[in-house]
Amino acid sequence: MELQNIYIKEVYPLKMIEVLRLSHRVSRDPRISTHVALTARAFGASKIYYSGQKDSNVEDTVNKITENFGGPFEIEYVKDALKLAEEKKKKGFFIVHLTMYGLQIQKEIKDIKKQKNILVLVGSEKVLPEFYKIADKNIAVTGQPHSEVMALGLFLDMYFDRKELDKNFNNGKMLIIPQNLGKNVKKLKE
Amino acid sequence: MELQNIYIKEVYPLKMIEVLRLSHRVSRDPRISTHVALTARAFGASKIYYSGQKDSNVEDTVNKITENFGGPFEIEYVKDALKLAEEKKKKGFFIVHLTMYGLQIQKEIKDIKKQKNILVLVGSEKVLPEFYKIADKNIAVTGQPHSEVMALGLFLDMYFDRKELDKNFNNGKMLIIPQNLGKNVKKLKE
Fold first, then answer.
1. B41 touches chain A (CB under 8 A)
2. Least enclosed by CB within 10 Å: which of A148, A190, B26, B161?
3. Cα separation, B114 vs B175, whole angstroms
């Protein structure tokens, strides 16, 4: 418990990780984009932006989970993803684009950890060259095709040195108490 | 390169991780199940079984990627998931069921690492109590709702001590050469 408080007080506010999910398509990506957003939240990012098509179902699902299980975490639609990346860069954010073609995360993570504010770009099927170019680093979580959900989650896990697994969330309505068999959900408020 | 060979020769054949994806639904899960399967492959599992509805699109996508990027990796449909789990258990497999209600992975992984053959159960929306019961351990990758893709991938990453990031695959047609900008794909054979 004490360790978790230290994490919240000392690690979280000093490091701000935001995510930008590119080119969401309502017809094809709703579940994947939801998983990307929930993974961002569960593994220590504070906000996700997404571009492409606005999708209130994804937003509602994510906001409902933040309401129930705690925050802080936000989701926001942006029309112009490149403009957002440019603005963040001006504000001092280091931009990491996750792509299987990039440099190996296991070799780059030490350098990236020195950065305090990071915007992580997570593509869908096809990513425009502009995003490769605006990135300070293009990073591969394995050079194998798998999942942007996993690429983002492992990036966060490596960035936060696995401390995010003990993260506490604030103002949630419920808390899951770990146990081997069955479900133990503690109600924190109505 | 030398390290990677050691990994292939000494770690991979000694530890066999297989995955069982429960209750796949063609209408709802095709992309998520594909991401689960590709994450299994990329992070060191040797095979994925799936139950629910048979889906040749998912199988074709996964097999195509194994053909292009190397294996060994297999995907197989099973009609009766519980029967498969029982059979694996008889053969000495340790069964881990990933669920947000389970014990914390950060506390349990040391014990689980002692196991050589593991079957990892990955649910979709609703998992029957039978699977909780047949599992030797029900394990939570955070007690937060996020993604079965991420839960599986982080489990594998912790089990393999991050060595899977340097894994070599065999008999692929292509290999991605890491670089910061652009795409460098080496053709290994036609």
1. yes
2. A190
3. 32
